[in-house]
Amino acid sequence: MIIGIPKEIKNNENRVGLVPGNVNQLVHSGHTVYVQETAGIGTGFSDQDYIDAGAKMLSSIQEIYAISDMIIKVKEPIQPEYNLLKENQILFTYLHLAADEKLTKVLLDRKIIGIAYETVTDNKGGLPLLNPMSEIAGRLATQIGATLLQKANGGRGVLLGGVPGVLPGKVVVLGGGIVGFNSAQMALGLGADVTIMDVNTERMRYLSEVTHGRLKTVMSNRANIISQIKEADLVIGAVLIAGKKAPHLITRDMLKFMKPNTVICDVAVDQGGCFETTKATTHDDPTFVVDGILHYCVANMPGAVPLTSTYALNNVTLPFAEQIAKQGIDCFKSNPHLLNGLNVYKGQLTCQAVADAHNLKYTNPNNITELQ
Questions:
Q1: 2-112+306-371 and 131-304 agree in CATH topology
Q2: Is 52 a catalytic residue?
């Protein structure tokens, strides 16, 4: 198969779809890999690194899309890439279609075979291609939130860990999944007073046990959220419903209960955000203020640490990429986890959650004869 690795063009997205070592693995397996010049520069990989790994270099993104049977990248295509997509091309990347009706329709119109990292599953029902980025984003949320709390950065002037004689800052994390737990771990490590909120009592029991009771847990509902955010210095939104648009757990009218200059960080922004006031921001201009509350809503948070996040992502994507490259669409017959990752197929929308989000027709991929 001919595989293309374009340079990411989203604002400050320095990750790259394949590291040179994984390019070498695919080339060794008999595939041809084309890499756009300087695609890996933001992560620290030179063009020569890719050439040494066996890749062929092309100068433009247009050439990459035109020649490739499969595109492997990190972030979803954005406007300048829409017209580069070609019919029956396999697109293997994060898509987050439930929050992007325009892209959903573009992929359908161009009859793309779109496999979303965030809906590929494993034998335990987990999301193995989403987990490493969730871990990184969760840890970054606390790290960035702690920085934003400094007065010069627009925050309340609170040191999360406090000092002897002064109480630590209070962190409230909405969601006890991978993002939420990693956020909470980082906050606990800084010495903060940390509460995590979820609707799953078993999950909260587990989180309390593994942190030896250091992590406070509270059932997530509107009344309890209001009660907790009244005292919070940093609120982290970490809610994920696989493939679906995130629910608004903090509505605009709830901001009035928060202290001025409280920081809220919405890690769920890729899926539409779990704060009503969320709007996607960039690393160039990451924050905005609504009703006196400082919002951080960068849609590609792990792009801030591209070396760590590119390796973490490649560790889990390579086995799936190898199977797709070897088998083409037959991979869906032999691997139900890749079938779960299939969001669009040659003009058909094959992810129920995305169809529900945009009120579009859903096609069960198990009913597509070509995939049986």
A1: yes
A2: no
